[in-house]
Amino acid sequence: MSKNFLHPLTGSFAQPAAENPTAVMIEAAYRQMGLSWRYLNCEVFPTRLGDAVRGTRAMNWRGFNCSIPHKIAVIEHLDELGISARIIGAVNTVICGESGLVGENTDGKGFLHAFSKVATPVGTHAVILGAGGAARAIAVELALAGATKITIVNRDRSRGDALANLVNQHTSAAGDYHPWDKPFRIPEEVNAVINATSVGLFPNVDQMPEIDLSTLRRDIVVADVVPNPPLTRFLKSASGRGCRILDGLEMLVNQGVLAIKYWTGLDADPEHMRLTLLKLGL
What we know:
The protein has 282 residues and is α/β, with parallel strands linked by helices.
């Protein structure tokens, strides 16, 4: 009986990449699904992103993920954008097909699925720390799901204003910007705080976003997009103050399930993927 030794390729482009456990999670899903597909974790520097994307075309990849710092920059190298990716202005999942490279965004959808397990987005006033690709996706998806106000806290005013304006222009929620020039104090009307930066990501596990911890109330949901470690110093501090916390591992698993669906057309088992990551000691 003949054997096929050509494995369909998928993967991730990021810089840094060493701390990203996505490959283990997705390859475990492939094996459980009986697929001979591979997922390669690639460190791609910003100056080489175009070369990396052209390589996927040359080698007939089926798709790839983009993480920090490529989620916005990758757009100029693609042929088409999905609806949510076009509104958000950032891409974290690319489908390589006969019609070319299509950019989608599962960041916000993955986060929203996880958030909805601990709180309703309807009526939420959320503070989002950061204004990069993940922040854009989460802000838009929360707003579309019924959040009433999105406050963007960022050091760069132009990026913060741009994201607040995006929320105002494309959703019914109110978006506003707040400068991050000192430890941010959480307003009393806020009921969700999301760290959408890479602060606290391995190996910088002792770092945490600059906020005034004394302003975190027990009724606030505190979330972090950092998957490694899942329990960041920020989340530990919030949990110690009685807040409900949401780790980045849940968001990462949901993103993986959606990406696999885009690439293969099949449904992966999220629980198997999460358990795989937990076995790594994350």
